[in-house]
Amino acid sequence: MSESPELVNAVLEIRDLIRLIAQPQIATRDQKLREELIRIVGRSASKTKAALLMNGAHNQAAIRAQTGINQGHLSTMVKELGKSKLLTGDPKQPKLAISIHSDFFEKAKERER
To answer: Which of 32, 49, 70, 73 has the fewest CB atoms within 10 Å around its CB?
Structure first.
């Protein structure tokens, strides 16, 4: 049975809506991990961009190329994230263990003010 593009799009839209609705519960569950992620990444724009690319689809070289982050800084950040249980899988192709929105770090900065 082949799925129509309309059906696939509808399912993806439902998934996105469920994620949006569940976000407060997920945030509560992952609060300590999110605080640790903010501590490790800090206020650096390049580290923020790098963390947002850590979805398992990019290796460290690709992350460096897209963000301009220093190789040593990225390597150190990946090691710290791994020690804090914030990464899953291969550190050469880092994937965050928690899901975050693209504005996660911006909202964290706003809360600090």
So the answer is: 32
